[in-house]
Amino acid sequence: QKEVEQDPGPLSVPEGAIVSLNCTYSNSAFQYFMWYRQYSRKGPELLMYTYSSGNKEDGRFTAQVDKSSKYISLFIRDSQPSDSATYLCAMSVAAGNKLTFGGGTRVLVKP
Amino acid sequence: EAQVTQNPRYLITVTGKKLTVTCSQNMNHEYMSWYRQDPGLGLRQIYYSMNVEVTDKGDVPEGYKVSRKEKRNFPLILESPSPNQTSLYFCASSFNRGGGYTFGSGTRLTVV
Fold this sequence. Notes:
The structure holds two protein chains of two kinds.
Chain A: E1 4-6, E2 11-14, E3 19-25, E4 32-38, E5 45-51, E6 54-58, E7 61-66, E8 71-76, E9 85-92, E10 100-101, E11 105-110
Chain B: E1 4-7, E2 10-13, E3 19-25, E4 31-38, E5 42-51, E6 54-57, E7 65-66, E8 76-78, E9 87-94, E10 102-103, E11 107-111
Parallel strand pairs in B: 2-11
Antiparallel strand pairs in B: 1-3, 3-8, 4-5, 4-9, 5-6, 7-8, 9-10, 9-11
């Protein structure tokens, strides 16, 4: 079993809908949680960075961390075709430390 | 502009011919790392460096070498490339105190 599990999708939604993404993990030592967006043939781009449990909002993006359930989520409001990409969750035990990635979820936002 | 720069972007080489992929960052980050990305396997860490002259193995270090002689540079060396090292490679950097990682644009390597 992988340390971080993520549904590969694809997840197809109409423009303007809310995109809901999530990851589960098994290592209770993870404390730092990140979401990355990766366009085809590009490097991952950091979207959200959170420490421990709780919610964080940045524009159209909301990240949630539930350490008791070992479950993290990313919500994208008012989705746009430009949000079509692969979304990767990542986590680490300590700051500035090794990242463990989920496999990524491919999202397609249709006009 | 704050960035991680990798070179080359694309490389086709033959089995056994030594090659180096360069990585440079301009953000004064302490932590640098190399990942490879393969379909179905995701991103896996090859090597990482906590600071100058401090490096350690990641999950898939076999067949790779690294060095960190300067804070900004972290080259990846394949001394004798094999076809199973055909992959998309990413360099990333971060402050040791956290804040997330900045990734380079990637190097697509094909070993024939």
